[in-house]
């Protein structure tokens, strides 16, 4: 496997990890877009930058989950 195959592989893994979180929080279609974006970024700009590109999505999913749960709590 050459370096381009390796970066694509790592990008797909990073995209899949974030996509799994997206399935839980947002549903399937947005998760599929996140996985595709992770694979493209991992292939073209390297695995580290691909994962950094997906980090805002991950943080957004966690914040969305937190506020969604917090809004259901009766104070």
From TrEMBL:
Transmembrane segments: 29-55
Top-level taxon of origin: Bacteria
Keywords: Membrane, Transmembrane, Transmembrane helix
Protein name: Uncharacterized protein
Organism: Methylocucumis oryzae
């Amino acid at each position: 496997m050459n370096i381009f195959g390796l970066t694509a592989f790592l990008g797909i893994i990073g995209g899949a990890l974030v996509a799994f979180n997206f399935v839980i929080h947002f549903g399937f279609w947005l998760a599929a877009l996140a996985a595709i974006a992770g694979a493209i970024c991992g292939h073209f700009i390297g695995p580290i930058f691909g994962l950094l590109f997906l980090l805002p999505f991950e943080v957004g999913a966690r914040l969305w989950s937190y506020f969604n749960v917090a809004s259901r709590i009766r104070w």
